[in-house]
Amino acid sequence: MLGAGALGKIAFDRGESLNAMWFVIAALCCYLVTYRLYSAFLAARLLALDDTRATPSERKDDGRDFVPTNKWVLFGHHFAAIAGPGPLVGPTLAAQFGYLPGTLWLIAGAAFAGCVQDFIILFCSIRRDGKSIGQMAREEVSKRSGLIAQLAVLAILVILLGVVALVVVNALKSSPWATFTLAMTIPIALLVGVYLRFVRPGRVLEGSLMGVALILFVVVAGQWVADSPSWARVFTLGGVPLAFALIAYAFAASALPVWLLLAPRDYLSAFIKAGAIFALAGGILFVRPHVLMPPLTRFIDGSGPVFAGKIFPFCFITIACGAISGFHSLISSGTTPKMILRESHARFIGYGAMLLESFVGVMAMVAACAMTPGVYFAINSPPSIVGATPEAAATTISGWGFPLTAPAMAGLAHAVGEQTLWNRAGGAPSLAVGMAQIFSNTIGGERLLSIWYHFAIMFEALFILTVLDAGTRVGRFMVQELGGRVWKPFARTGWMPSVLLSSAIIVGMWGYFLYQGVVDPLGGINSLWPLFGISNQLLAAVALVVATTILLKMGRTRWIWVTLLPMTWLVIITMTASYQKIFDANPRIGFLAYANALAAQVAAGKIPAAKLVDTQRLIFNQRLDAAVTAVLALMVIVLIVEALVQWYAILSSRRAPGLHESPYVQTQWAQEYSGATQGDD
Amino acid sequence: MQYATKTIRRFARRFWRGVREWCGDAAYERYVRSSAARGDRCQRLTAEEFYVQQLNRRYSRPNRCC
């Protein structure tokens, strides 16, 4: 009742502004209801979870990969693995449509699609000794589906790394404070790495706490760097140098021993991520900010300055991870099923962790919508849309009905310790402003606004960099595996020439997308974030196809709508978005229309000779993006056809539904065993 | 009062243990216990060897999401 009332309030209230508590109440109540009812239905009726069956962690316990783990600890592991920058950046970008569509999709999408996918894939993998989504697709659907799953993983990895790197570049450019802080995390991570390897092997807690303390110190020290003209000059970098610095960093992190840089940075990132998310939740509850963004803006018609495209399908493509993320199926079918203690824990960990991720998305939406809408659009709009000078941009944004003045923006930039906040598309800076306002209203007031802003930027950039280096390393292994099929020595993961070449190939692939985003006059995010959303939702469609096939083989035809409906919805939005991104006549939406418009300008001699090479490259990039989108859409079509053939064969009893489950083994654990160390309980 | 103190201490102990397991601090202790329980005949890894091997395994597959 309370949740329905709160949802009604945020959906129908048209007053001056709405208190953020309504969002929190609506989200929490919806989560409680769906967890209590829908996930219980899935656990009992659809999957029939069986606690008498021994899980892989019991049968194969080796203390390394297969480790029986307490459900609360595993929930923390699983949540830390699935929660990346997506649920923060996606809702922030989708706030251009207003707070309502994004919030509704975050809640409903998670409850009926994202959580369902994570939970069912986790269950399927537990019953198959922790097999990956690619292996399950190959065994349960068809060999071709397995290949599509592998290609989809590689595609999403490359596009994901390119786009999240672009978010970091846009957050750091022309900001000596933020650049210094992030740069200093590298020597700090190296220090922690050496400590954990040689001084106190494996003492992660003490090493990480030492590193976190040093990072908090450099956040404050960044102000001294920004205030020093000579040092500020060193750390004031443009987009292109920052892009190359990130590419060089990821290459090094991929090729260096993992204990030296990648792992310690991941530990630091995990602690800071957990702390910042709890702090944001606490701040929202304490400050109870008013949401200033209207429920719907004029940009639902597709003319948005942050990214172009109508509310359908682009709101869903943009939100992506906060509602449903295909990438989660890699975690649900990788590490977690090998550590789960009992089958019944899959409900809490698979369904519950995704609900929490959705809540992070709702908090990001609140933080983005709690700032003045004019400021939000000023930070996220490229100059080609709003105008190159602050005065022109302020006039344009005010003309949209969101009052803004150039001096107000200059004052805000000064208050957060930045030279400028104009043209910082990507979501990170606007989210950081929103978080800083909430944090400073909790502790420190205006005086600490700049510290909080740079803490928020550091928090976002740090764990984006963790995704970047960990993703580059995984991509390197994929490239080595693929190369090994052509020339066997290439697959040797310890052979240095192969390590260096494969690292160069993977950073070259995502680095190209990053570079094209940095030099794109429309801001890069406009092209790349939808591409990322499409590839992410494609992988979710793959996961749901696998889940549907397995449910059919289990004889759950009556309940097949549980996965079939979200899968159908994902296919519809993925295909519609792909079609529009390729063929739409509006150059801001359609890749080909933009390429053709530029080609026409070149043919008409309207492009100055000095910009001719850049324009030709831009034309090529748009055509490349169109080709990538077309390949992704084609993979969806092939996958659906494969699945339909398989489903028809099962339903018409032409093929025996051969399940590839591990045989039943009865658990030897007592019912009350919780994975706790003896004597601790 | 005594009951409350006991409950708080038990909760704090559980919380501390959970944090250590979550961040990987207790991974080696787990490994030692596990291989001992299974009567593993192979040579037991040292803390340093286990730490490096564990990291190499963890970061060779997707373990961080978007």
Description of the molecule:
The complex is a heterodimer of chains A (681) and B (66). Chain A has helices spanning 2-12, 21-46, 56-59, 71-82, 86-94, 99-126, 133-141, 143-172, 176-199, 204-227, 229-234, 239-255, 262-287, 311-319, 328-332, 345-369, 373-380, 383-386, 390-399, 406-415, 428-442, 449-486, 496-519, 525-553, 561-583, 591-603, 612-651, and strands spanning 18-19, 290-291. Chain A is mainly alpha-helical and 681 residues long. A two-stranded antiparallel ribbon of chain A has the order 1-2. The longest helix of chain A has 40 residues, at 612-651. The radius of gyration of chain A is 25 Å and the shape is globular. The two termini of chain A are 38 Å apart. Chain B is mostly helical. Chain B is built from three helices and no strands. Classes of the chains: A mainly alpha (681), B mainly alpha (66). At the A-B interface, helix 4, helix 8, helix 9, helix 10 and helix 13 of A face helix 1, helix 2 and helix 3 of B.
Structural class of chain A: mainly alpha
Question: How many H/I helical runs of chain B?
Answer: 3
Low-pLDDT stretches of chain B are none
The residue ranges of chain A in which pLDDT falls below 50 over 5 or more consecutive positions are none
As for the number of domains of chain B, it is: 1
Task: List the keywords.
heterodimer, A: 681 residues, mainly alpha, Amino acid/polyamine transporter I, two-stranded antiparallel sheet, 27 helices, 2 strands, B: 66 residues, 0% strand, flat
